[in-house]
Amino acid sequence: MILAGLTGGIGTGKSTVSAIFLKAGALIVDADQISHDVVQQGKPAWKSIVDGFGEGILLADGEIDRIALGRIIFNDMTQKLRLDKMVHPHVFQEMANKINEITLSDPDAVVILDVPLLIETNMHHNMPDTILVYVPEAVQISRLMKRDGISEADALAKIRSQLSIEEKKKLIKIVIDNSGSVADTRTRTLAVYDYLKQKRYHRDLKWND
């Protein structure tokens, strides 16, 4: 199995790049989807969040109101760190479970570990390859305002809740610039996928010597 970490920032278009990888044949382990799953009503992370933030962050059906919780954490780093400590252990365990399943069922797979907070959680240190989806911060702000219908101040608060995209760019070797056309992004993404497949090919050669 060839494993690579994929990250970006809010509004950089990481989901677009992940979808291109998936269509090309990669398997995706999506940390965002897992993080949604582990906080569903009745799950251990759900209980920790309700105990920590109170029932005021619940919707009428008992599920977590992500908008209400987001208002708390995106403007208070201390609260965000509290939430991370409640959720991340469950996310990491489920990600490990999925990787183990793939190792058993498809050991030749190219696996993209799609993790928004790859660097913030120091997971990039354990990745053979890391990939950053990049756009300048001004583009992040514009896209986020349009996507979520929020003010510039709210968009900036969300963006600044993560490590800046420019700092991430300094730490990651493979960069996919998503500030141009979709066609340009697809071309660059497929080139990265070909690079990962070549690593698999050369690895297999060495194993067969």
What does the secondary structure layout of this molecule look like, with pairings?
Layout: E1 2-7, H1 14-24, E2 27-30, H2 31-38, H3 44-53, H4 66-73, H5 77-105, E3 110-114, E4 129-134, H6 137-148, H7 152-160, H8 165-171, E5 174-177, H9 182-208
Parallel strand pairs: 1-3, 1-4, 2-3, 4-5
Helix pairs in contact: 1-9, 2-5, 3-5, 6-7
Provide the low-confidence segments as ranges.
Answer: 204-209
Order of strands in the sheet with most strands: 2-3-1-4-5
Main sheet overview = 5 strands, parallel
Q: Note the gap between the termini.
A: 18 Å
Work out the strand percent: 5-15%
Structural class, please?
alpha/beta
Order of helices and strands: EHEHHHHEEHHHEH
- The helicity comes to 55-70%
Note the total helix count.
9
Number of strands: 5
**Overall average residue pLDDT:** 90
Q: Taking Cα atoms only, what radius of gyration do you get, to the nearest Å?
A: 18 Å
Principal-axis shape equals: globular
How does this model look, in words?
The chain is built from nine helices and five strands. The chain has helices at residues 14-24, 31-38, 44-53, 66-73, 77-105, 137-148, 152-160, 165-171, 182-208, and strands spanning 2-7, 27-30, 110-114, 129-134, 174-177. By secondary structure, the chain is an alpha/beta fold.
